[in-house]
Amino acid sequence: MSKSIETTLLLPACRETRSIRDRIRGGAVSFHWLHPGMSVVVSPPPPLPPAELLLKVQSIDLMKSQSGQNRTEHHTHLYQSDNLVIRRGQTFLMWITLSRPFSPDSDKLHLELKTGPLPTVSKGTHVIVPLVEEPEDGRWEAAVVRQEGSKMMLSVSSSPAAAVGRYELTVETNNASGQTVSVRDPANDVYLLFNPWCEDDAVFMDSEVERQEYVMNDIGRMYYGTRDQIGARTWSYGQFDDGILAACVFVLEKSGTPPSGWGDPINVVRVISAMINSPDDRGVVEGNWSGSYLAGTSPTVWSGSVEILKEYHKNLGSPVKYGQCWVFAGVFTTVLRCLGVPSRAVTNYSSAHDTDVSLTTDIYLDENLDPIDELNGDSIWNFHVWTDCWMARPDLPPGYGGWQAVDATPQETSQGTFRCGPASLAAVRSGQVFLKHDAPFVFAEVNSDKIYWQRKIDGTFSQIYSEKKLVGHAISTKAVGTDERNDITDLYKHPEGSEQERIAVETASRYGSKAEAYSSPTAEDVSVEVTMDGEGPKMGSDAGLTITLRNSSSERRQLVLHSQAAVMYYTGVHKATVRKDETEVDLQPNEGGWSLVGVPEEQCHAVINRCETQQVFATQFSFRLRTPDLILKVSRPTILVGEKMAVEISFTNPLPQVLKAVIFHVEGLGLLNARKIHYGDIGALESASLTEQLVPSLPGPRKLLASLDSRQLTQVHGVTDITVEGKSDGAL
Q1: What is the pTM (predicted TM-score) of this model?
Q2: Is the peptide bond before 12 cis (omega within 30 degrees of 0)?
Q3: Half-sphere exposure of 434 (CA within 13 A, CB side)
Q4: Is 134 annotated as a binding residue?
């Protein structure tokens, strides 16, 4: 008990007394006015509580070690990040060290998490996490699970609908002695991700093997080429690589969209779809299909997403040059997997690009059956790559959740912005194109009819033929758990030509801008087919095609065969005509044939024929010239972390011309950072090789990727497997 002390001062009733009062105002002492000559009793105020009664936070331990319990249980142990990385809807543990032991009877404590430029409690971007005795699932709450003197361990649960992103963490304490707030430490910032392991999360996926593939696998496969010549290459997603998580959150922040919407995966994938391409918002990758890439990197050089995302982040949001569809899809898949959304890259062969929401692919011909280039905006790409992502769709009727198509390649706008999806695969398959988002465009890509229109003398057009089985074939993605190709065409469309498939097309066409263009199948007694022997020609050799006409009627047919061979970009855009023929054919009531041999370029072959019955038939055949592979040789297939190893990369030029300014590009997650090697020229039909050194930094099965690019030759790449073992305890 403290004792009160009284001090007696003899003060005259004068101005000086008032001065003293002014100096001791505020409770420093107390006094009473007395008559002149009498004393003033001055007493000190009651003593303040001892300083140690104020509860202060001395330190916070988020237990964020990669191999620790938090990161392991949240499946975030692979992220090369020093921050705590957790998934929403799941508890995590943390230690708080206080200035004295916590007393539940008199002390109050809560956590505060803030994200975005203007954190707001009502919008879920300023989260107050109360301390409770019995936490409930699905809510932001914390409970004490252990107390050791001034230290206590908290179990913190989060909402399965919380906004994803980077949160600043502070701890606030209150008691009778006052309030304190811990100082924000960037090292204690928390990354919160979607959680496919949580049943209450909209991205929940119940198969562990699929979660391992579509969330945890940082290596994938990209498919390209044509439906008859499917090519494959390895792509490094690298979603766990150092700096990639920060880069992905930066992409979200750069969008300028409110973080309050980042808890809804439907909204998040639409935001990212727009941000991966550069129109509208200076997104991650700038597209370029011109063939000239001197101001940046050729799209075929990239082997992964890491280098692209790091460059975008480092340059504070300056678009990376250049990309095409597989690059957009690869980077998109990386960002989604990094944020916790199950996703995969998907390739569609004979992929239609509908430019006028007609849900048809329209080809306009003049009176002589020659294409009218200025009207032919629609095209059929040899292949197109986009991304599938997995989520519930509470905004749609039941049954339309699961896989959703999203696309970052800037083809057409959606609500004024270059983006696409998410479109429910179930909706696309059944032709329910009125269900959002962008189902009409995706439906046209995989299942539109190709319709030929001929201009009449009065300038109007009439429909002369439709191909109903040309679009959408061999839709491919990497198989779960292996490097094999998985054909998922049946997820996008019913079997080609089946009654269900035709019903889906008819249903979708009702919502297109040319609903009257839909026609039921008609009998055709003459058919045309273009074929090619074997796997097709290699680069530098001739291509042989066979056009076969069949007459299934009992009568003779006379017709004119219009054929054209042309070099096309993979997007279906015409580059140059190689050969053009018009041949009269007298077809008996049995098979007839006509061959086209010796076309020395990659090309599409289109045929239109007309017989005396006024029937018109058409078809298109695409093929690619196969390029050689890079050969990667390692001195041994197994290596220790930190051990140096040499890799030899060799290549033989298949062309009878010099390859100018050849660039090699190599990268490997956990093996070496991406690098470009400016090699110089490689002579006609000559071989070249170079040796690179690598020092692995991470254990496990690894892939080393390499590509070659020059003005004369692209799409040359190679891969080799390397097993990296961790150092033993006795290793120096």
Answers
A1: 0.83
A2: no
A3: 5
A4: no
